[in-house]
UniProtKB/TrEMBL annotation, chain A:
It comes from Spirosoma foliorum. GO terms for cellular component: cytosol. It holds the Pfam family CCG. This is (Fe-S)-binding protein. It comes from the Bacteria. GO terms for molecular function: oxidoreductase activity. InterPro entries: Cys_rich_dom (IPR004017). PANTHER family: LACTATE UTILIZATION PROTEIN A, UNCHARACTERIZED PROTEIN YKGE.
TrEMBL record, chain B:
PROSITE patterns: 4FE4S_FER_1 (PS00198), 4FE4S_FER_2 (PS51379). One of its GO terms (biological process) is lactate metabolic process. This is Lactate utilization protein. The lineage of its organism: Bacteria, Pseudomonadati, Bacteroidota, Cytophagia, Cytophagales. PANTHER family: LACTATE UTILIZATION PROTEIN B. The keyword Iron-sulfur applies. Keywords: 4Fe-4S, Electron transport, Iron, Iron-sulfur, Metal-binding, Repeat, Transport. Pfam families: Fer4_8, LUD_dom, LutB_C. Residues 296-326 form the 4Fe-4S ferredoxin-type domain. It comes from the Bacteria. GO terms for molecular function: 4 iron, 4 sulfur cluster binding; metal ion binding.
């Protein structure tokens, strides 16, 4: 099984440790992973700002990097969702193929690889931020608005980690307010949402906030640091590969 | 054509200057959302009900003309006079004409967001007609000369103290009074006098039934009934999308409406109007005002399924933290943000951007409107039509140029990280909205790609 590793631009530039953890995790569970070197960005920043018509170049670059893999896996629910819904291109056949083969990391581990054990230890209280695009867009977890049985793919995996204590939030799937360019164009609301999201985790005494989307975590981290908090953020891949 | 699209954002900055008030607003609406969650969880077939409602509405959208004609025939047979209004101006003129014909200069009105959309109160006031809103929340904001901030709870942005101050000024209640019982009693006496002395009453329409030619008005205060039953002339104002095919469909919508809105099993009053009582006149004004244009847009026609429950507002994390007035539109929140650009793209180009696209709105919607997908689609339409600020278009083009080129992307990344590491002041300043309330991410020495080449590539 040949897996193409898709590392979103801001993870590549600012959070290489998340990409390294993702690569190690995939290799640990037996995948043959390849990182196409010419990849850049999925085009979501432009598309969500109303400029999807400017994303043709990003699309074609994505297709030329990722055509032909059995699976494409990414440690970002949001970018994965964007590709799944909006990737088109000069080579539409390849684009269609990619849209059906791309997976967010936790759904790949639970749905495709059906992982039932992991050698990981993380002896801390952890709060999970259910990022909206992963949760409501990719259905990584049941949403609180629906009358339906609960499930959560990230929780399923975190439950495999030894000594990890997962806390329950008061608002289990409230948005953190990142929202792509929303975080700067609507700075007042975005920051307030982030502060409220962080406060929910802090009320429950977490040591770490985790999630499947680094963008949300970057936003929450910025707020935690401004408040001089000791609480840190860690992408779920970092926790799933943690050992002591 | 280019104009700034930051109205909502600016209003939100103002709203957020008083953080305790934002907290209170957020918690009050979240309380309603959780009440809704508890109520719907008691209905095992909730998701099937939503699906049924959605399909009935799909049928309505596809058969709008026939259903409206059928409704008109049956309503006329019942003795109701049916009027058609192409836009807000016609709607206002028809209602003004009916008031004049009745020889009245005063009218009592229960809740109708359509009349807000058409600015009826302003129009009638300018023409010398006094209008008193009988919904308590609407009466409060009317006294304050403010528009409603929410379609179900029009005064939800106000505290008990705000209401006390308003009543002190307008109804002569004691200064500083905040006791709900006392304030409600004052409002009750004031409105009772209004109901008894108005010859013309206007109500909205929640559901109009094609099969019977009757309509249903839902309230929690009984104010629509009090106005309509005591008046000589009852005028009902209705957007044409309120039509449903048959009486049996009411059961689906009445179960969904109040649970989604407030977590109640049903509204306290669900009043069925079928014909005028002897000696009374009953009129219904059916309004288009852009609805047929929206019906003709395949991407946005679903927005006409809306039954105005406001569940999307209560759940919207942005609405809760920016307040209804920040949407500068009769219908606020996520649904308003997909309805308003249809009415005026230029005025409302900012609204589809007042969202993180979290998707919660689409999932609470009792008629399954794809609200967040429509927000995304409106963004594309608005920017392509040139309603984006010029600076935004320029920066997006630059961004696309960098991100589509692996070489430029890597160069920009390297420079960006370098700047952050060695000259953080260039971004850590008051001109960077991110930095206003958040720290910047710590830039690493090497990108993942660099690491990969150094560590993994043979």
């Amino acid at each position: 099984m040949k897996v193409g590793l898709f590392i979103p631009c801001y993870i590549d530039q600012f959070y290489p440790k998340v990409a390294i953890a993702t690569l190690k995790l995939l290799e640990k569970v037996g995948c043959d992973v390849d990182y196409p070197l010419q990849q850049t960005c999925c085009g979501q920043p432009m598309a969500n700002s109303g400029y999807e018509h400017l994303t043709g170049g990003c699309n074609d670059n994505f297709v030329s990097n990722f055509a032909g893999y059995d699976y494409i896996v990414s440690p970002s629910g949001s970018c994965t969702l964007h590709i799944k819904h909006h990737l088109h291109g000069t080579n539409e056949t390849a684009a269609t193929e990619i849209r059906s083969r791309i997976y967010e990391l936790t759904e790949f581990l639970t749905d495709v690889l059906k992982i039932s054990s992991l050698e990981a230890t993380f002896p801390y209280k952890v709060g999970l931020h259910q990022s909206c695009h992963g949760q409501r867009g990719l259905h990584l977890a049941q949403m609180s608005e629906l009358v339906a049985p609960p499930y959560s793919k990230p929780v399923q995996l975190l439950n495999l980690v030894k000594d990890l204590e997962l806390i329950q939030l008061d608002r289990r799937d409230e948005c953190c307010g990142f929202g792509g360019t929303f975080c700067v164009t609507e700075e007042a609301v975005s920051a307030k949402m982030g502060k409220d999201r962080v406060a929910d985790h802090l009320r429950h005494g977490v040591h770490y906030i985790t999630g499947v989307d680094v963008s949300c975590l970057m936003h929450l981290e910025g707020i935690l640091k401004r408040a001089n908090s000791n609480v840190q953020v860690k992408h779920i891949a970092e926790i799933l590969t943690a050992t002591i | 054509m280019n104009q700034p699209t930051l109205d909502h954002a600016h209003a939100a900055i103002e709203f957020n200057k008083n953080e305790p008030r934002v907290n209170w607003h957020d918690e009050t609406l979240w309380f309603v959302r959780t009440k809704r969650d508890r109520a719907v969880a008691q209905i095992p077939e909730w998701e099937q009900l939503r699906e049924a409602a959605s399909q009935i509405k799909n049928h309505v959208l596809s058969n709008m003309h026939d259903l409206l004609v059928q409704f008109e025939e049956n309503a006329k047979r019942n003795g109701i006079t049916v009027h058609w209004a192409a836009d807000g101006a016609e709607h206002n003129a028809i209602i003004h004409g009916l008031i004049q014909k009745a020889g009245a200069t005063r009218m009592v009105k229960s809740k109708s967001m359509l009349t807000e959309e058409c600015h009826l109160n302003d129009y009638l006031t300018k023409h010398g007609i006094e209008v008193i809103d009988s919904d308590l929340g609407e009466r409060i904001v009317q006294m304050r000369k403010e528009p409603p901030s929410h379609i179900v709870m029009p005064a939800i942005h106000l505290t008990k103290a705000d209401v006390g101050d308003t009543f002190h000024e307008h109804l002569g209640t004691e200064k500083g009074a905040t006791d709900p019982q006392y304030l409600t009693e004052a409002a009750r006496q004031h409105l009772r006098d209004t109901f008894l002395t108005r010859k013309v009453a206007l109500t909205g329409v929640n559901f109009a039934i094609a099969e019977t030619g009757g309509f249903v008005v839902c309230t929690n205060e009984g104010n629509a009934d009090m106005g309509a039953h005591l008046a000589d002339v009852h005028i009902a104002a209705m957007g044409f999308e309120k039509i449903i095919p048959r009486a049996e469909h009411l059961g689906v919508f009445l179960r969904l409406l109040a649970r989604s809105a407030t977590g109640q099993p049903i509204t306290t009053f669900s009043s069925h109007f079928h014909k005028p009582r002897p000696g009374q006149e009953m009129h219904i004004v059916i309004v288009d005002n852009g609805r047929s244009r929206q019906l003709g847009r395949p991407d946005f026609r679903n927005s006409l399924k809306c039954i105005r429950c406001a569940a999307c507002m209560n759940t919207c994390p942005v609405y809760r933290r920016s307040g209804g007035h920040s949407y500068h539109s009769a219908v606020a929140g996520p649904i308003g943000s997909i309805l308003a650009p249809n009415l005026d793209m230029k005025q409302n180009a900012d609204l589809p951007f007042a969202s993180t696209l979290c998707g919660s709105c689409s999932n609470v919607c009792p008629v399954k409107i794809d609200i967040h997908d429509q927000l995304y689609k409106w963004r594309q339409v608005l920017m392509q039509e040139g309603y984006g600020p010029a600076a935004k278009t320029v920066s997006m083009k630059a961004m696309a140029t960098v991100l589509e080129s692996p070489r430029l992307y890597r160069m920009a990344g390297k420079v960006g990280r370098g700047v952050l590491r060695f000259a953080p002041v260039t971004v850590e300043n008051r001109f960077n909205p991110w930095y206003n309330q958040r720290e910047m991410p710590e830039p690493p020495a090497e990108s993942f790609r660099d690491w990969y080449i150094n560590n993994k590539k043979a």
